[in-house]
Task: structure prediction
Amino acid sequence: MLMKLKEFTSINSQRLLAHKVGVHPSLVCQWLSGKTAITAEKAIQIERATNGAVTREELRPDIFLRDGISHRSGLRPAELASSPRGSTTPARENEESHG
Result:
């Protein structure tokens, strides 16, 4: 679940991610160790801060997936990973315009 986040922070620093999502670097460390759960709000912020390299569905499938399918796009995580970055589905455009 947190593998992509671990990969991202091994290339980019935990401190940089923490700065981008507005948390202390120690919280990022706690997320990576599994000591503290990532909230839904922070999962969305992480997705945005990583330009989609780490998705909210990967971080919190219990919240953002139903039966293995994304609520916002209707795609499974593997399909989300292979979809072009920067393209948005109508559901996501609608979500972002209201939030």
